[in-house]
Amino acid sequence: MYYIDIHNHMLTGIDDGARNPETTAKMLQIAYDDGIREIICTPHYLPGTYETGKAERELRVSHLLGVTAKFFPGLRIWEGCEYYAAFGNLTEHLRRGGCGTLANSKYMLVEFSPETPGDVMERQLLDIVSSGFWPIVAHAERYTAFENEDYRFHIASFCYLQLNADSINGDYGTRIKRLARKMLSEDIVTFVATDAHGAHHRKPVLSVCAEYLETHFGTEYVEKLLYRNPKCIIDNVRI
Ligand SMILES: [Fe+2]
After folding, report:
1. SS3 assignment for 129-194
2. How many A from CA of 235 to the centre of ligand 1?
């Protein structure tokens, strides 16, 4: 089994991820060596700050694919974005060709600021659902609203939750690690991804987390979070 990374900022120079082509190349090498064979590129789409549209993202992914075919056989790369949803106006951003879904599926990777009030998150997520998309809450372990057990179960009842591998590993402190691991044990998590931003810090590595998952939850759980569920995005099949 190989890994699929559904959250990754390795496209060069369009957000706070890879700053230059060398970093992108290093990130590709790290991911490939780690056993990752499919990557969905998800640069931030943050109105007013990061506004690279879908057409440009697709172009960059196709350029990258041209290079990777020679050096990384079997590696597949898909276009996507990470949509900052707290401001609303989804329909307008879609109409302008701005934000979009993952790998041309109905799945949409959505983020908020960590302190966003729970009712604001809920309202925007419901708006995405009512627009016909399937929202995935990016790095769900970061939000203070999710400290409330009832709230996170409620959101998980109509959205998918993604955790960052490094948060599970403990790289972002005890509070975030504890919440991430709690959600794993509650079985409300659908995806674990790298959210990689560079080649030295926040690297595209899933194997360390896979070891933790294997030890505490077993092989089946590793496959589900790092391969089978992500594959459903590529295939545009509802989980
Ligand atoms: Fe991200």
Report:
1. HHCCCEEEECCHHHCHHHHCHHHHHHHHCCCEEEEEHHHHHCCCCHHHHHHHHHHHHCCCCCEEEC
2. 22
Specify if 90 maps to a domain.
yes
Range of the domain at 44: 3-234
Q: How far is the CA of 68 from the centre of ligand 1 (A)?
A: 22
Ligand 1 ion: nearby residues, β-carbon < 5 Å: 82, 195
In the chain, the number of structural domains is: 1
Q: Which CATH number characterizes residue 16's domain?
A: 3.20.20.140
* C-alpha of residue 197 to centroid of ligand 1, in Å: 8
| d(CA 158, ligand 1 centre) in Å | 21
**How far, in Å, is the centroid of ligand 1 from the Cα of 71?**
26
Measured from the Cβ of residue 140, the count of other Cβ atoms closer than 10 Å reads 27
- Asked if the structure places residue 52 within a domain, the reply is yes
pTM: 0.97
Assess if residue 217 is contained within a domain: yes
**Residue 239 within a domain:** no
Nearest to 17 by CA among 50, 47, 48: 50
Could you read off the pLDDT tens digit of each residue along the chain, which spans 239 residues?
A: 999 999 999 999 999 999 999 999 999 999 999 999 999 999 999 999 999 999 999 999 999 999 898 899 999 999 999 999 988 888 888 888 899 999 999 999 999 999 999 999 999 999 999 999 999 999 999 999 999 999 999 999 999 999 999 999 999 999 999 999 999 999 999 999 999 999 999 999 999 999 999 999 999 999 999 999 999 999 999 99
